[in-house]
Amino acid sequence: MKLLAKFNLILGLVLGVGLALATLVSYHLAQENARAEVVRQARLMMEAMSSARDYTSNEVKPLLVKQQEHLTSFLPQTVPAFAATETFASIRAHYPDYDYKEATLNPTNLRDRASDWEADVIQAFRNPARKGATEIVDERETPLGRSLYLARPIVAAAPCLECHSTPSAAPPAMIRHYGSANGFGWNLNEVVGAQIVSVPMTVPIKMADKAFTTLLAALAGVFLATLLLLDLVLLLAVVRPLRNLSAMADEISIGKLDMPELPATGKDEISILAGSFNRMRRSLERAIKMLEG
């Protein structure tokens, strides 16, 4: 096997092992970065929904409550949870994989009733061991695969009790709209629900796979370019000088001494070897002349 082929084999094995290790590390990092990006987007959506709730409470509700006094029907647009849920319905048109719910243990609007797993999240916020917790990021199993969710607690503040303390204290229009069986008995500063943004893990996996494929192609390109560049350097700096030395040795072995000397201007091993060959050729030439004379 020629020197260049041996070099390519050894370098290919070394770079191949390095590429394999880089691939494993890169895939893990791509997965982690994709998950972190999904969580970041979920937080942005959560902040948007919280802003919608605050805007409804501070700006919209005071205006609609005045109008509602002259109406017999209840306006759900005065409810912050309703506003946030309806706002997210518009966002979901652009982010269909994401879901948002104001899950509540005892809601007025039954569409907000917490499912079993959502109730577990709410109970986690109510757990004394998690007192003061403002966020939970976790994963869960679903019939469609794993899902990532971000949850924040909904705490009953004083304005909430205007509608959710007792049926007698609630607006009559709300009782006519929703009835008096649900959404009451809330206590001040009690965790009554949770805002939950959830997304299937297929989303970060797809993001990670796309990033990993791009990175792998880039690594493979760098691997090939590096191998070709090193081949060129090896050819010019090692293989070609050694070929010249080999050719000179062949010529000398058959008695041909009238050949130009090899360049030996450097201080590396190849140049030193070339200088040694030149001296050997000159010594051999003088010895042959002496014998002939």
Question: Can you tag this structure with a few keywords?
Answer:
single chain; 293 residues; alpha+beta; 4-stranded antiparallel beta sheet
Number of domains: 2
Instruction: Please mark out the parts with pLDDT under 50 across 5 or more consecutive residues, or reply none.
Output: none
- Shape assignment: rod-shaped
The number of strands is: 4
Distance, first to last CA: 44 Å
Which bin fits the share of residues in helices? Answer: 55-70%
Element pattern in H and E? HHEHEEHHEHH
Biggest beta sheet attributes: 4 strands, antiparallel
Please work out how many helical segments DSSP would assign.
7
How does this structure look, described?
The chain starts with a helix and ends with a helix. With 293 residues, it is of the alpha+beta class. The chain has seven helices and four strands, in the order ααβαββααβαα. The chain has helices spanning 3-68, 80-92, 116-126, 158-164, 172-178, 202-253, 269-292, and strands spanning 99-104, 136-142, 145-155, 191-200. α1 (3-68) runs antiparallel to α2 and α6 packs parallel to α7. The radius of gyration is 39 Å and the shape is rod-shaped. It has a four-stranded antiparallel beta sheet. β2 (136-142) and β3 (145-155) form a beta hairpin. It has two domains: 12-202, no CATH class; 210-292, HAMP domain in histidine kinase (Helicase, Ruva Protein, domain 3, Orthogonal Bundle), CATH 1.10.8.
Question: What's this entry about, in short?
Answer:
With 293 residues, the chain is of the alpha+beta class. Helices cover 61% and strands 12% of the residues.
